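Holo model, 6-O-phosphono-alpha-D-fructofuranose. Inputs:
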Amino acid sequence: MEKSRIDLPIGITLDRFIKSNQSQYPNAAGELSQLLRDIALASKVVNREINKAGLVDIMGNVGLMNSGGDHQQKLDLLANTRFTRALSKGGEACGIASEETEQFIDLENNGKYIVTIDPLDGSSNIDVNVSIGTIFSIYKKQTPPSEPLQESDFLQKGRTQIAAGYILYGPSTMLVFSTGNGVNGFTYETTLGEYVLSHPSLLFKNASTYYSMNEGLSFDILDKGVTTYITNCKEKRMSGRYIGSLVADFHRNLLKGGIFIYPRTNQYPNGKLRLLFEANALAFIAEQAGGLATANEKAILDIQPIRIHQTVPFYTGPKEMVTTLLAHINH
Ligand code: P6P
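Output:
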């Protein structure tokens, strides 16, 4: 049964919101609520580190690459450590799969949830002081509690997510998440050290305002319909906006109306963005906000993952914009 969307006043704290949200689920024992609090706490610590990044020696890269081939930044690894530690101490998650680690991490507790996370997305922007983000998904452990965690626990379709969201470390830091009952945005009030409700019941603005794609890829796009769609956007005098931080581009498109496109290219024939660490969470948010998220014609949330670090092409935005793009691709 569809839960009634919660109408709570702007300004209430995340904790009050979570308590009220939990009351909608009579059988809830509070584990998910606590897990969300643990993620929020870790984000506050990461936010503090990011805000002083220019002052202490945590900029730059560490000379290593993650499995996706990204140069790991010092802040990437720091964020990964912070979230892993917070979730391990919180005890509600029994395992984590992170974009920054090759294998999943068994936290060796009896928590009933697992978390997939991109601890700090937008690495290329870290050293130039442009908005970056954290992207997370929460699933239930599928194997029986008595059995050890297995990789298959992390290879669940995105449609099985219990909750998902992102933190945007920008001019203000925001936590945007959904537990399947609409999307709500919270702004971090630094003087209080609290996230407070600032964007209740977020829905994609159904306006074709922006298109977001790295146009440096234009000569490498494998699906020519993407190229004709972008030309169509220009003919309609839409604005091209591309920050290169997925969370920042997604958030702007959510609030102002726009489509994000990372197509299949010669360099990334299966797409660049990670299904488990980026696409699934944002697709969950997109659908909860009345939009769409697809990998060509397949809904992201219906893709059966086969590898933890699997990548996908990724198109997401208002229904009308994504539908029009797919019409061009399938033309
Ligand atoms: P490109 C950042 O590294 C990221 O994973 C996303 O945040 C962003 O949308 C994309 O890659 C940018 O990729 O190839 O345009 O630099």
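The pocket of 6-O-phosphono-alpha-D-fructofuranose is lined by residues 70, 121-124, 214, 244-246, 272 (CB under 6 Å). Residues 31-51 form the longest helix (21 residues).
Archived with the compound record.
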